[in-house]
Recover the amino acids of this structure.
C-alpha cells in the first residue's frame, strides 16, 4: 500500500490519488483505488470509483460516475448524470452526458457524442463525429462512425456498421454484419441484418426488412412490410412497399415500383418505371421495362420481356421468350414463344402454333389444345422454378387457380422460404 507519491496527494473525499497538476473539487469523490492524473478536472458531485482513471485534460463533472476500470482521458468530457463503467474508454474530444451509459469494453473517441438515456456497451465503438442519443442502444461489436446518428429507440448491435451521414431512428434495428452508409435514413421499425448493405440516399421505413446479402442503394425506398433478401438489389429511384417481396438475384431499379403482395425472385428484373403490383409474380429471367405494368394474379417468367406500355393483368401468364411492348391483356391468357412461334390463348386458340414443343398438338381441338399447352407451360415453369413452395405457387398460377389459391401459396412462400423470425 502506497502511503505517498511524489507530486501526488490523497483526495480528502474518498482517499484516491490525485496528481498535483489535476483539479478535483472537495465535493467530488475519488475512491481509494481510483486516480485523477495529468491536468484532468473532476468537479461537482462526480464520483471516480473502483480502479477508474481520469487522465490528460479530461473533464468529469455534475453527477457523473466513472467506475470499474473505466478510463476518461485526453480532452474527453463526462458530465450530467452519465455513467462510464467496467472497462469502457472515453477519449479524444468525445462527450458523454445526460443519463447516458457507456459500459463493457465500449470505446467512445474522436468528436463523438453520447447523451440522452442512450446505452453503449460490450465491445462497440462510437467515433469520429457520430451521435448516439435518446434511448438508442449500441452493443456487441457494432461500429458507429463518420457523421452517423443513432437516436430514439434504435438499436445497432452484433457486428453491424453505420457510417457516413446515415441516420437510424425510431424503433429501427441494424444487426448481424449489416452495413449502412452514405446518407441513408432508416426509420420506424425497419430492420437491416445479416450481410445486407444499404447506401446512397436510400430510405427504409415501416416494418421493412433487408437481409441476406441484399443491397438497397441510390435513392431507393423500401417501406411498409416489404422484404428484400438473398442477393437482390433495389437501386436508383425504385420503390418497394406494401407486402412485396424481392429475393434471390432479382433486381429492381430505375424508377420501378413493386407493391401490394407482388413477388420478384430468381433473376428477374424490373426497371425503367415498370410497375408490379397486387399478387403478380415475376421470376426466372423475365424483364419488365419501360412503363409496363403487371398486376392482379398475373405471372411473368422464363425469359419473357414485357416493355413499353404493355399492361398485363387478370390471370395472364407471360412465359418462354415472349416479348410484349403494347396492348392490354387481362383474361386467362397464356403468352409464350418457342422459336418463332407465339401462342395467345384463353381456352380457344387465337393462333396456330408450329414449333417443336407444340408439334404434337397440330391439328387440334380447342379443349385438347388448351390442356396440352397448359401442361407444356406447367412443365416449363416447374423446370424454371423447382420444387417446394415457390414451384407450387408458379404451377398453381399457370393452371389458373385464381387469386385465392395464389394468395395462399404466397403465404406459404413467405412462411416457409422467406420469413425469418
Amino acid at each position: 500500500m502506497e502511503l505517498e507519491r511524489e507530486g501526488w496527494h490523497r483526495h480528502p473525499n474518498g482517499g484516491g490519488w490525485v496528481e498535483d497538476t489535476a483539479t478535483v473539487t472537495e465535493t467530488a469523490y475519488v475512491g481509494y483505488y481510483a486516480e485523477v492524473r495529468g491536468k484532468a478536472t473532476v468537479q461537482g458531485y462526480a464520483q471516480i470509483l473502483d480502479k477508474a482513471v481520469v487522465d490528460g485534460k479530461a473533464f468529469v463533472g455534475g453527477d457523473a460516475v466513472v467506475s470499474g476500470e473505466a478510463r476518461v482521458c485526453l480532452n474527453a468530457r463526462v458530465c450530467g448524470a452519465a455513467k462510464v463503467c467496467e472497462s469502457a474508454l472515453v477519449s479524444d474530444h468525445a462527450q458523454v452526458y445526460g443519463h447516458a451509459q457507456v459500459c463493457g469494453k465500449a470505446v467512445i473517441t474522436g468528436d463523438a457524442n453520447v447523451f440522452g438515456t442512450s446505452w453503449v456497451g460490450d465491445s462497440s465503438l462510437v467515433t469520429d463525429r457520430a451521435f448516439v442519443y435518446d434511448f438508442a442502444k449500441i452493443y456487441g461489436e457494432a461500429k458507429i462512425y463518420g457523421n452517423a446518428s443513432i437516436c430514439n429507440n434504435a438499436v445497432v448491435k452484433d457486428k453491424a456498421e453505420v457510417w457516413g451521414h446515415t441516420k437510424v431512428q425510431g424503433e429501427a434495428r441494424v444487426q448481424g454484419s449489416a452495413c449502412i452508409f452514405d446518407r441513408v435514413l432508416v426509420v420506424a421499425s425497419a430492420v437491416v441484418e445479416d450481410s445486407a448493405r444499404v447506401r446512397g440516399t436510400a430510405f427504409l421505413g415501416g416494418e421493412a426488412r433487408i437481409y441476406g446479402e441484399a443491397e438497397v442503394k441510390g435513392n431507393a425506398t423500401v417501406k411498409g412490410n416489404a422484404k428484400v433478401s438473398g442477393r437482390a438489389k433495389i437501386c436508383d429511384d425504385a420503390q418497394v412497399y406494401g407486402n412485396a417481396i424481392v429475393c434471390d438475384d432479382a433486381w429492381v431499379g430505375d424508377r420501378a415500383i413493386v407493391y401490394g403482395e407482388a413477388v420478384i425472385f430468381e433473376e428477374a428484373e424490373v426497371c425503367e418505371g415498370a410497375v408490379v403490383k397486387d399478387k403478380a409474380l415475376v421470376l426466372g429471367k423475365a424483364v419488365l421495362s419501360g412503363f409496363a405494368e403487371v398486376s392482379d394474379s398475373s405471372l411473368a417468367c422464363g425469359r419473357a420481356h414485357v416493355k413499353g406500355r404493355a399492361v398485363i393483368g387478370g390471370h395472364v401468364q407471360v412465359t418462354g421468350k415472349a416479348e410484349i411492348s403494347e396492348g392490354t391483356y387481362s383474361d386467362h391468357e397464356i403468352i409464350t414463344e418457342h422459336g418463332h412461334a407465339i401462342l395467345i390463348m384463353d381456352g380457344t386458340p387465337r393462333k396456330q402454333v408450329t414449333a417443336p414443343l407444340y408439334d404434337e398438338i397440330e391439328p387440334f381441338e380447342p379443349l385438347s389444345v388448351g390442356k396440352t399447352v397448359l401442361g407444356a407451360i406447367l412443365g416449363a415453369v416447374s423446370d424454371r422454378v423447382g420444387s417446394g413452395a415457390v414451384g407450387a405457387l408458379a404451377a398453381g398460377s399457370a393452371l389458373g387457380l385464381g387469386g385465392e389459391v395464389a394468395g395462399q401459396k404466397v403465404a406459404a412462400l413467405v412462411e416457409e422460404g422467406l420469413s425469418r423470425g
Observations:
- Residues 366-385 form the longest helix (20 residues).
- The CA atoms of residues 218 and 236 lie 4 Å apart.
- Residues 338-410 have pLDDT under 50 and may be disordered.
- The longest strand covers residues 334-338.
